[in-house]
Design goal:
The protein is about 50% helix and about 10% strand. It contains 19 helices and 10 strands. β1, α3 and β2 form a beta-alpha-beta unit. The protein binds thiamine diphosphate, iron/sulfur cluster and magnesium ion. The site of magnesium ion has 8 residues, from α5.
Length: about 400
């Protein structure tokens, strides 16, 4: 039976948000960017904003590819220039909602100057920063957020620089909305983006996310799932936390939450105020007086509120329409699922399974993963068990191959 790719893509629940003709995407398995895009798409839908008035701007990098995949007006601009381009779009048409979706290398390295000045101006932008601690697209070099001591292609003996804490940086620069999550916190990411889309001023949402192919492999931190588990075990929820306390150490705790949400006149409001002083009531921006623009803004807000109300009503109807029994049956199925785990894994004694995976994560960059994992498997289990836990062996081989020669000694 042949698969009709065209109708498969058209039938996808994401077909209205993503450019399905561009699928499959380039992101690696386990990379956090995909789930962020999903959260973003969900947030756009939930916000009730008019998708035709939304513009997405990205710089260069794996995250920079987002602009090319979303089914909105978008610009994939040059490295580090997403914020100035987005600023230009907003100034040219203040009716648009402008989102910057880019990597931390793009936004805080080459584009760092633009970031701090947009925050200082309280420019009306929503900035979503995928922070994977590395330049993913170009081979895993150190970035301004790579934790001290982490290994990168340009710091094979460990990073001796100190990283930016992005919430602290943009807070000091003047951002009026700041949140941080990890790619495991999909719903919170959605919620923060939704909030940011509906507010004015400079909003910054950092999403800590795994670059499986370069950062995780080079630092021997396992795969995407291992990192999600790390996020789950090490995230500390602290809404309103002082951003001075949000630094991230190598494999340390990650403070997450909404840290800042305050009102301050935006850049465009500042322009208006100044021009009204100079020109008086005749002042117009793109042919519209301030009262005219205010009336339009009010009407748009009402349309958004109506769309949100309609969505809430449809959701409530959907929930009522789901009969109680099938939902229970589904829950039972989910609970039963672990029993279907691969036979080989089930055959392995618990201690052996544990030993085969854990030392790789704990020893991280310090000890050669190949040796440690092999030792642990040998100690914990006889031949049969080694056979039953092939995942760790495969993983360590791949990681040993990827690791820089010097650190493997
Ligand atoms: C002016 C310029 N300098 C350098 C590059 C090479 N370059 C492309 S992407 C990139 C790093 C992107 O890193 P990040 O923003 O963290 O995105 P990621 O790939 O990690 O998602 C670099 C250095 C470039 N394209 N243009
Ligand atoms: S190289 Fe890293 S950041 Fe780029 S797609 Fe792969 S996992 Fe994601
Ligand atoms: Mg990056």
């Amino acid at each position: 039976m042949s698969t009709d790719i065209k109708s498969f893509k058209a039938g996808s629940p994401m077909s209205d948000v993503l450019r399905m003709e561009r699928m499959p995407h380039i992101w690696c398995p386990g990379c956090g960017i995909g789930s962020e895009v999903n959260s973003f798409a969900e947030a756009v839908k939930r916000s009730g904003i008019d998708p035709k008035k939304l513009v997405v701007v990205s710089g260069i990098g794996c995250t920079g590819r987002v602009a090319g995949y979303v089914n909105f007006d978008s610009i994939h601009t040059t490295h580090g220039r997403a914020i100035p381009v987005a600023t230009g779009v907003k100034l040219a048409n203040p009716d648009l909602t402008v989102v910057v979706f880019s990597g931390e290398g793009d936004l805080t390295g080459i584009g760092g100057n633009h970031l701090i000045h947009a925050a200082r101006r309280n420019m009306d932008l929503v900035v979503i920063c995928n922070n994977n601690f590395t330049y993913g697209m170009t081979g895993g070099q150190v970035t301004p957020t790579t934790p001290n001591s982490a290994i990168a292609s340009t710091t094979p003996y460990g990073n001796y620089e100190y990283p930016f804490s992005l919430p602290f940086l943009v807070d000091a620069a003047g951002a009026t909305y700041i949140a941080r999550w990890t790619s495991m916190h999909s719903r919170n990411v959605t919620q923060s983006i939704e909030e940011a889309l509906l507010r004015k001023g400079f909003s910054f949402i950092e999403v800590i996310s795994p670059c499986t192919t370069l950062y995780l492999r080079r630092n021997r931190l396992g795969d995407g799932v291992d990192m999600l588990q790390h996020y789950q075990e090490n995230s500390i929820l602290k809404h309103g936390c002082d951003t001075r306390e949000t630094a991230i150490d190598y494999q340390g705790k990650i403070v997450v939450g909404k840290f800042v949400d305050k009102n301050k006149p935006t850049y465009l409001e500042g322009v208006d105020k100044c021009c009204v002083k100079l020109v008086g009531d005749d002042y117009q921006l793109y042919g519209k007086t301030i009262p005219e623009r205010e009336a339009e803004e009010k009407a748009e807000k009402e349309r958004i509120a109506a769309r949100r109300a309609a969505m809430a009503a449809t959701e409530a109807q959907g929930e009522e329409a789901v009969p109680a029994k099938p939902r229970k049956a589904l829950a039972a199925k989910v609970k039963k699922a672990p029993a279907k785990a691969p036979k080989k894994a089930a055959a392995a004694p618990k201690a052996a399974k544990k030993a085969a995976v854990k030392p790789v994560k704990k020893t991280a960059a310090k000890a050669p993963a190949k040796k440690v994992a092999a030792k642990a498997v040998k100690k914990a289990a006889p031949k049969a068990v080694k056979k039953a836990a092939p995942k760790a062996t495969v993983k360590t081989k791949a990681m040993a191959k990827a690791a820089p020669k010097k650190t493997r000694k």
